[in-house]
Amino acid sequence: MAQASKPKSYPFWFGGNAGLAACFTHPLDLVKVRFQTAKNQPSPGTIRAIAIIIRTEGPLALFNGLSASLLRQATYSTVRFGVYDIIKERIPKDEKGELQHLAATAVVAGGIGGVFGNPADVINVRMQNDGQLPVEQRRNYRHALDGLRRVTVEEGPRALFRGLAPNVQRATIITCAQLTSYDFFKQTLLATPYFTESIWTHLTASLLAGLVATTACAPVDVVKTRAMSASPGAKAKGTLRTMAHMVRVEGPASLFKGWVPAFTRLGPQTILTFLILEQIRAIYDKRHAKVAVVSAPAAV
């Protein structure tokens, strides 16, 4: 009798591979960054903003910072998904479905991923925001590695960790909201008679996870973006202090600037990420399943 079993854990790089879904939603991420860095200015709307960028800067401007975005996914997503899976595998089997254990695991994984991804994130934000700055203030990084080199030389290595606090906070929130809610929604759906382990279950769970993640991390995301795009001489402020200042000067809605492009980006990105990840895992399971052969005792 042959019995297939799933591998105990998956390769560390699976999360980074799935994170490349960000390529498809990069233009929306660029629009979100520009909305968030625009102080005391009304947002023109996502579609109109895209049209303005195409008209004034050209279609390729929508992909400014793509190399940095890919580098960020290769560091941030790889680490957070990898650490999440490693820790989750060590949770006792009878406790794996408990929300508090999944949330704690996601917080740790997100925080570590945020630290590793911060340098690429700084370059990504700056390259995306460059087009709306006055010509004399633009940094004009040629690509991600050029940005990393120039920041290190011109501003010092510490500048690569600008906005680290809000970035780590955002990473823990979004990882907790995204990964935990995906696992929670998936388990909840599978517990009903209407869903099975299928692409439709993954699609539904990931869509709900994207909605939760976008809303939960919006305020910290705005603070992170402003900190990373600030000029070298700008004085850093704490996350809560920055939020309080924004609410006082710009109103509470400023904490959710760029929510629509953020969800328009993060929703599809979350769906693509988990769909790709689930398919990679399914292929891996089929190719690496261990078959135990149990021989029936000979008749006497």
UniProtKB/TrEMBL annotation:
Its main location: membrane. It is found in: Membrane. Coiled coil: none annotated. It is a multi-pass membrane protein. InterPro entries: MCP_dom_sf, MCP_transmembrane, Mito_Metabolite_Transporter. It holds the Pfam family Mito_carr. GO terms for cellular component: membrane. Belongs to the mitochondrial carrier (TC 2.A.29) family. SUPFAM superfamilies: Mitochondrial carrier (SSF103506). Solcar repeats lie at residues 10-90, 97-188, 197-283. Keywords: Membrane, Repeat, Transmembrane, Transmembrane helix, Transport. It comes from Thamnocephalis sphaerospora. It comes from the Eukaryota. This is Mitochondrial carrier domain-containing protein.
